[in-house]
Amino acid sequence: xxxxxxxxxxxxxxxxxxxxxxxxxxxxxxxxxxxxxxxxxxxxxxxxxxxxxxxxxxxxxxxxxxxxxxxxxxxxxxxxxxxxxxxxxxxxxxxxxxxxxxxxxxxxxxxxxxxxxxxxxxxxx
Length: 125
Description:
Elements: H1 2-29, H2 35-49, E1 54-58, H3 64-95, H4 100-114, E2 119-123
Antiparallel strand pairs: 1-2
């Protein structure tokens, strides 16, 4: 079922979301200061490409207050528009009964876009 969901996701726009995240990541990584944010954008691209097989979990490494500070900077620089976009599409998919699984994936991406630092992407088992 996850494979079918991923195929439908990719065909109906998931590939474009992932490409947008990769392009944004390259743009961020051009600057030295933007490299950490570019890496988080790549994390979002990985999750956006095959969301039915992946989930975001807290990292086992101790990042301390640095991840909190980076999440705050991320939120004000680019995270808020990403969160609002995924919220909009999640609600839009929830309006249609058949789109509820895709709305769930947008809400999952929204949570990751809200606080990407300190999270890792793992495959569902």
